[in-house]
Design brief:
It is a single chain. This protein is α+β, with helices and mostly antiparallel strands. The chain is 61% helix and 11% strand.
Length: 487
Amino acid sequence: MQRPWALAGLTLIAATTGAQAETLADAIALAYQSNPVLQAQRANLRATDETYVQAEAGYRPTITAQGLITTNENNEVFTQPVPGNSQTTSAVITLSQPIYTGGRVASQLNAAQATVMAGRETLRGTEQQVLQQVIQAYIDTRRDQQAVAIDKANVQLLERQLVESKARFAVGDITRTDVAETETRVLAARSQLAAAESQLATSRAEYSEIVGQNPGQLAPEPPLAAMLPPTLDEAFSIAEHLNPQIGQQDYTEQASAARIAVAKAQARPTVSLQATYGYSAGAFGIQTPFQNLGHAFTATAVATVPLFAGGTPSSQIRQATEANNVDRIGIEAVRRQTLFAVSQAWNQLVGSRSQLKTDEDQVKAANIAFEGTRREAQVGQRTTLDVLITEQDFSNAELALVTARHDEYQAGASLLVAMGKMKVEYFAAGVQLYDPIANFDRVRHADRTPLDPAVSAIDHIGAPKIAVRPEPVEPPPPAPATSGATP
């Protein structure tokens, strides 16, 4: 009794899904829009954007107002000319405009910009992790759905075999031992089916947690071949340019380098302009308030030159330098970790592809052996035990093939993540992508004044130049793959 769905690549699941089957693109699109981990990281980046706004505020004027009312009671008997009360009022408005901060604000702005860029890389890494989790949950559920279908078919086949064995025992063709052997296999198959159903329930729960809805009947996942590099060296090269962990660490180092410049700026002179306008008025005895009214306007250019601060600036410079050393060394550490992850995923992919080819051949051979043994048993050339053994071998080969396909896809997805190429648009066309730059552009100049460009240009005089790493330029994505049988 042949099971044609096995030789067709275990398409029993796909054959029943039809156009209504849930696809990997559907799952990725839903998780990309609603996954709470991803939503939280986006909010965290928007909060990080505000650090740039706060740094840029150092170029802008500050305005303060102060008002005072002072009352004095004079009750002494011998006060001349007349004992009584006095009251004075005053108000002052002060405007202060930085002109040159020694490069401190310019360096703070560089540090904030690098921190924002590091946050974008962190978000990109989170997106990759979530997408990898979606793919993992999807292929786990598909694997377990197929395993349940195989185990059900195995139980049904063995139950028919048991009925046949009992009939043959009734006419004396086989012994009671043969029937008992078949019954044992049926019970074992039912136990294996129960375990497979339990595993499927676990995978479905994990899928629901990651994607946000319970899985239906899942369509075959799209192939990854077009997204994967042909050689390991090319995978290494892509990872060094696109991996978000490397990018995040690089930007972190740029931010700490800018903080060294912030510490050094404390030893430079600063220049600012100040303007004040105030009035004062006083009254004595029965005089009305606001008599003796006076007002004044002053404008002052203030230059401050640090001379001695007890060694604090020098200590802060040394501290910032060592913190930058840690971040600079961290770049190499992250780079090595990334290359190891790429190498590990590549080796797993190569091994799983070899295993997949072997398991496909094994399924074909096991099916031929099972069908041949079954026919030979019908003419008395094989025993019932021989049939049961070859049937079990065939079922195990089918399960191994399902697992091999799962592992091959898992290794391919891990390689994409290690390289930094796991992108939602590679899997799901038409999804509205989150743009982290849009919020930054919206808030960065929210309170900008006309003097900001001029003050910024002056403040950059003498300030160290911080080379912020440009965003990686990725090759154009391949056309989103359509769902179909995996290679």
